[in-house]
# Entry
Amino acid sequence: MNAVSTTSAERVRADLVRARSARSARESLIKGLLFLAALLSVATTTAIVVTLLQQTISFFGEVSPLAYFAGTKWTPLLSGDQQSFGVLPLLWGTFYLTGIGLLVAVPCGLLAAIYLAEFAKPKVRKTVKPILELLAGMPTIIFGYFALTFVTPVILRDVFGIPVSEFNGLAAGLVLGLLVTPTIASVAEDAMRSVPQSLREGAYGLGAGRLQVALRVVFPAALSGIVAALILGASRAIGETVIILIAGGQSPSMSLNPTGSFQSMASFIAATARGDIPQGTLKYETIFVVGFTLFCVTLLLNAVSTRVVSRYRQVYE
Amino acid sequence: MSASTAGPNPDNQIPKAPAEVGVSGSVTDLTPYLPPVDSEYDLEMTDLKGPEEAPAPVEVIFDCSDVEVHYGEHRAIRDVSLSFGLREVTALIGPSGCGKSTFLRCLNRMNDLIPGAKVGGHVIYHGQDLYADEIDPVQVRKRIGMVFQKPNPFPKSIYDNVAFGPRVVGMEGDMDEIVERALVRGALWDEVKDRLTENAFGMSGGQQQRLCIARALATDPDVLLMDEPCSALDPISTGRIEDLMAELKERISIVIVTHNMQQAARVSDKTAFFTVEMAEDEKRRTGVVVEYDATDTIFTNPSDKRTEDYVTGKFG
# Structure
């Protein structure tokens, strides 16, 4: 080994070592920042759950869980004998209005998705897709007033002649459907577009027509994404507050007749939290109990959706 | 010099096929699984004996003249004039980007699916121009099956994959039988008969590709177009598919695009050599046919220098 090569070996070594230590310092800094960002969201969620739980436990110290979960009368803000803490009317209102909404949103959203993904010309798709996404992000208060001042008086009463009260579940549910249609359409369209072109070609090559390719190959192949779209739409409807608050009324009901007033969990929280109920009272704690119930329902739905999606997930190379 | 007339086949007569190349031995008896011989195809083909005066040894199933394809402004291939014989295997070889696949996709109107693609010239199949106005491309694809470069089974069960074609075209008869027959013809039945309800994605790549072949055979096409069907497969799977092609040839015509020259030499009766032509005024590349002849001739005694350079490995 001669002198020259020794020197160059040392230089190479020094180079390699220096680069490594400088990079590792930078990397650990970035890693720390990323960890903090992740921690922040976890900490926030934890704080929310803890707050909800505290109040909920305190609430159940005074009201029996049976009366809460099985009771059919929700009048927590009244006093004396009139007061009742049965949450079922709120659950019913939430799911009933969501159901009306999905009755509109699922067919409309899926048909729109199939059209956009498989039939629309690129130009049409490029125009419609951003509009859909814009619609999905529109403030819901606009939808709420649209339901109250247009759907109820003009569409339901004048056009269809349905004798609905001013605040009614039908208008709220229908507009809830309008709200989640773009979400379902947009997410389902993404799922269908991500089905590889080779599957379409394979089907066309076997003599399938456009509709057959769309319905028999692309739609089932995108099923996991489509289910995710539906569940996303449903959880948006379940958590939706303002539309029901404005157009659906404020009296909880377990009626099947959608022309009357309904209240959902979220709209109860919003209506009650802006009132002047003193902290620490039982009435005040109902806000948190209902919040916790809503949290659990949404969590359950997400868990189900994760399982469904992973079960039907198809990985394409 | 026009490449289309460079071949020895200016009148679209098909050169005589070479004597049968030794095909791997035992062929299972497929008779019970094959469609009846006097099917509708044979009736129609009686009108298509080829030019009377020509000593045409093989019936023509495809007669293409001056085919050209544009993708938007770009001309991908030009002046492709080739004829394919009934129950023959024709190989299309040539360097990447020479338009072999583009041409292949003209034969069952798959290019219709590519936005901006335009096909010119004539593609005559059983005497009928496939690009005539009244032709329904969906009907074309029912009769001219296709197998793609990468296996593309549907995310469904093995059974449903094979049954897909018969179902969409409304084939009559017992679906179980149709599926079994297709899988036997695709040389896959023995391997999958006990797991027909399993998802096709659980199969190996070679099995998936044979499933795709079986799927294409299920509708009883009389032509199978194969676009580099073995390029994603290992040599053993490749060998199986080549054996399969030799068996299928008894009943149907096959046009195969391949980059593997040994494969072309092994499986085909005729070979067409494509190359890329760089236009002087534009920087675009256009594919043309240099030479079309019996496979033996192409590989042992080509008449064009470019073909010789390509098959001997001096170019491409």
